Structure formats: structure tokens, C-alpha cells
UniProtKB/TrEMBL annotation:
Ranges of residues in domain Mur ligase C-terminal: 320-444
Protein's gene: murF
Coiled-coil parts of chain: none
Family: Belongs to the MurCDEF family. MurF subfamily.
EC numbers: 6.3.2.10
UniProt protein name: UDP-N-acetylmuramoyl-tripeptide--D-alanyl-D-alanine ligase
Domain Mur ligase central residues, every copy: 107-293
GO molecular function: ATP binding; UDP-N-acetylmuramoyl-tripeptide-D-alanyl-D-alanine ligase activity
Lineage per the UniProt record: Bacteria, Pseudomonadati, Pseudomonadota, Alphaproteobacteria, Rhodobacterales
Amino acid sequence: MKTLWTSQDAAAATGGQTTRDWVVGGVSIDTRELEQGDLFVALKDVRDGHDFVAQALKTGAAAALVTHRPENVPEDAPLLIVPDVLQALEDLGQAARARTAAKVIGVTGSVGKTGTKEMLRSALAPQGRVHAAVRSFNNHWGVPLTLARMPQDTDFAVIEIGMNHPGEIGPLSRMAQLDVAVITTVAAVHMAAFDSVEQIAQAKAEIFEGLGASGVAVLNGDIPTLPILLNAAKGARVRLFGESDQADLRLVAARTTETVTTVEALLDGQEILFKLGAPGHHLAMNALAVLGAVQAVGADPAQSMLALAQWHAPSGRGQRFTVTRSDTGGVMELIDESYNANPTSVAAALSVLADSQPEGGRRIAMLGDMLELGPQEQQLHSDLADHPAVARIDTVHTSGPLMAALHETLPDHKRGQHFATADLMAARVNRLLDSGDVAMVKGSLGSKVGQVVTAIKALGQTTEK
């Protein structure tokens, strides 16, 4: 086990008291994902992590970060005792950032944060030791946890930073002390907490609060709120990506097949051509943001372009599967976009589905509610019927009270079945899909359309494409 924290270093970082000497090789907040030798952090969330300290130590944790010794834990247990566990986790994160010479890239945006983070992981991997969160750890505990897990010998770190409300990004960005700040896009997401897209842009621009004096801002040059971002990024070196003439990394063309996007672009006026291991115009845009960040940290874009050909969409964000049905032997394709949804990401997913090539079947969208959209939520759902990609989609099935607005707006020949909940849709997938179909499942996490994905996979043998 490689040492990540000693008890002495962790105590110095947090101001806590250790019960005895220990070393840990990782940091965990969940006993279900705990690895041998981890420091278990007893956060309070839905459950109090202190209730799981004994279990964590029994199953392999080398120590636990706590405010007190739980009653069912031995007196000689390896503990780091602090006044506030979350604050101590933040302290560990800041100490980990301070002791490394890594170039740190922060990624935020209304859409594409996790995919861009994973692209950066792939793009930089051939050129150094890369540290990034394993999933979408982008909130008030996810960012310090990602930082606290960062080895001292990291060369490049990629920190995803998200938000639901104003004022959330700034503190996380300052904690990460960024060398590069990437904003993928600004769109009508989390509108329940904002009055306008301009306010969302201002909140996303908080990422510049943690950008160093010589930092680089990599921004989407095509969005209407770009002036807000540019004003907030004053003092930083700005790199623009997009399709407009002003872009430093300008997309010329993105050609998709079922599994690949071929990207033709101009990088500071020089023609470049590379492939992504997943289809989507929106992914080509994210890849240009990635190359901008690669340049900004002094890495080689040519090596990164080669590496991006091996990149694949993260779980629930465009993964593609072949499903061979047990009942008929027929083969279908599943596009899993079930992790989250908003008008921008649903539009992108519909475009990917429209570009798919069914083997004698249909293009079928299976959509759940988009949540946190505020007063315009009904209209934003019904507006999806006007997206150009819908013209090339055969059937749209919907679930949830908000998607009922889209169901009613769709033309008769496109309108599939509507279900009150995603679990009811999941129970009917065997009748909604046939051999040769391509089905795309999309919805906000809270709409639970992941159940539909699970039900489709359960129809037979499933292999990732």
C-alpha cells in the first residue's frame, strides 16, 4: 500500500488528535466502497457516519476521522478526532493541494462536466500521473474528498465543480487553487434556484475565484452569456473554443458514426483531425475544451488527440450496449443517458439517437422528467417536440408528470405511450421494443429512468459496444 496520509500529517492538516500512529492509502466516506487501508470519514448526511465506524474498521479501514469515539469502537482504535468532520475533510483537501506540484484543472458548466473531466483524464494519462474523481464528486463534500485523495506525486489533477444554487462554486474553486478553469457551457439548468440564464453564468463564473494569477480560462465562445464570463475572468489568459470565428480552438466539422466522432478543427489556425471513441457533436465541442486545457497545463495536444480515440462515454452519459433478447433472440441497441437531464443535454441525446442506424428497426426515445427547471418547466418539456432531431426519431415514450407536456405536444405519429412513473415504463419495455430498435433512455436522476435501463438490459445478454 502506498502511503497517502500518516497520522502525524493528517493531524497537522486538521488540528485533530490521533489515538495512535497509523498510515492510510486512501480516503473513503462509504463503507460499501471502502478499500483496505483507507481512512474512513464519518460524515453526517442522511445517516451519521459515526454509526458505521466499527464496521469500517472491521472491514479494513486503517483509521477513522471522527468527532468522538463511538460507543461500539474499542478505546485503542486508530482514530483522528476533530471538532467537525466536514471541516477536517476540507482541511485535508487543502493540505493535499498545498503539498503537490500538480497542475490543477477545474471543470464546471451546465452540461458536460463529467464527460469533459473523463476526457481530460484520458487525454493527459499518456503524459503524466493524473488524479480525478471516480464519479461526479463535484459538491461540498465531493471536491474536498477528491483533493484529499490526491497523491503528492500527481502531475495533473482534474476537479469537477458543480452547483445547485449561487455561491457554491466559489468556495470549492478557492479550495482547489486552480491553474486552469474550464466552463463547458451555460444553459437553463437548475432554474428553480435562478431567475435567468445570466444569473447561472454569474454563478458559473465563481470558478475564477480560485484561479491563480497566471491562470487560464477555457470558455465556450458560442454562448450568449460569454461577455459575463469574460468580465469575471479579467486578469486570466482566455482561450475560447467553439464554432465561431473568434474561437482559438474552432470546430470545423464533427462527423459521427454509431461509435465514433471524427473531429476536424483549427487549433490556433492550424488544421487538426482526430477521433473520439463516442458519437456526438456536443462531445466534439467538449473535446476542444479539453485540448485547450491540455495546452494550458503545458502538455502535448498531439498525444492527447491520439488518446481521445480510446475515450468512451461515462456510465449513464451515452454508453451504448447491444442487447440480445432471451425471448426472441433479436438484437437491439441501448443508449444509456439516464444519469441526468436538462433541455440542452436532452437535445444533444436526441441528436445522437437521430444519427443512429437501426438494423431494420426504429429509433425510440424513452424520456423521463427534467427536474429543477423552475416556473417554465412545463414549457421546456413541451418545447422538445420542436427539436429538429425529433423529425428523425420514430417514437417517443415518456414518463413522469412533466414529460406529460411533451407527450401531449408530440405529433400523433411520434407519440408513444406515457407512463405516470419510470417504474411503470420499465415494466413494459419488453412490449415497447422490438428487434433492430435503437432505444435511448434519458431523464434527470430523480426521475429514476435508470430503472428503464436496468429493465432493458434484463431482456437478455448485454454487451457494451
